[in-house]
Specification:
Layout: H1 2-18, H2 26-46, H3 49-62, H4 64-74
Helix pairs in contact: 1-2, 2-3
Length: 83
């Protein structure tokens, strides 16, 4: 049951960070991106990997723009940051 509450807390934190101005989103957004795989693995171990797959799809959907930015940086591109 604790894992469910941690997952709900993560979603509320992500929505709260999304409402911040863009320049204020970097640090809390990075913390959420780092915490997401840990939470997804915990869901997969304690519940089932089907639920972990659903959680992964939700995280990818919610974090698609930061992940696109990180992917571009890893490929050596210099993407433009929004103001």
């Amino acid at each position: 049951m604790t894992l469910v509450w941690l997952s709900i807390l993560w979603v509320f934190a992500a929505v709260t960070v999304a409402m911040l101005p863009m320049r204020s989103q970097y640090l809390p957004g990075a913390v959420l991106l780092i915490a997401a795989p840990v939470l997804i693995v915990a869901i997969g171990v304690t519940q089932s990997w089907a639920y972990a797959l659903l959680a992964l799809l939700a995280v990818l959907s919610m974090s698609r723009n930061p992940l696109r930015y990180l992917w571009a940086r890893l490929r050596g591109h210099k993407p433009e940051l929004p103001k």
